[in-house]
């Protein structure tokens, strides 16, 4: 609790948006990621490997934009900073822990911008990046949107239809499973919108047994496009 409170206070002081609710959400994510580090590791490795694969498909490696860069756990920041001329990281909040990761790289080519991305990606069109990565952002945007389906449709159209190589990683739905491995509940995470065809798919144990409930785990289905 003390660590969370300190992180919240430092984030509020360094944030350009200074929105306590958003900062509290990011600090909650940071705390959960620390508690669930072992369960999340395979998902984070899959994300990083897929992003590196995508970079391999980019011919002009000037600018990369990461949407939903968050805690920089799914994103191979070091690799991106070495492989492309500039890296721009967008999120509602860049916590001090993420800012520190960037500073520790000791590179001048990484920028952090705090922005609400639920209004679409038109702002990228003035100077389109070569690669745009949407890193486990979409379901989170949908979760807080008054009309989740609209936000999901717009993000998919903008990301996949832009003048850049798109890279989409998103969770699309979840299962609640008991200790016998039986599915006791399911849910959609994309506001009822159909996900695009995936190149890769995997499971992400977001809440292992004991995290949200003692006798159930929450497992998300993730696609990479
Ligand atoms: C699951 S986390 C992403 C994790 C991140 N890719 C990483 O490597 O640690 C989802 C992120 O989406 C961000 N987010 C949610 N809604 C957003 C919005 N409307 N605009 C911008 N970012 C948003 C959250 O702040 C959070 O950092």
Key terms:
alpha/beta; Rossmann fold; about 40% helix; globular; binds S-adenosylmethionine; about 220 residues; 8-stranded mixed sheet; single chain
How would you describe what is shown here?
- The protein contains seven helices and eight strands; from the N terminus they run αααβαβαββααββββ.
- It has 225 residues and is α/β, with parallel strands linked by helices.
- It has a single domain, classed as Vaccinia Virus protein VP39 (Rossmann fold), CATH 3.40.50.150.
- Strands 1, 2, 3, 4, 5, 6, 7 and 8 form an eight-stranded mixed β-sheet that branches.
- Helix 4 links the parallel strand 1 and strand 2.
- It is globular, with a radius of gyration of 17 Å.
- The N and C termini lie far apart (37 Å).
- 35% of the residues are buried.
- It binds S-adenosylmethionine.
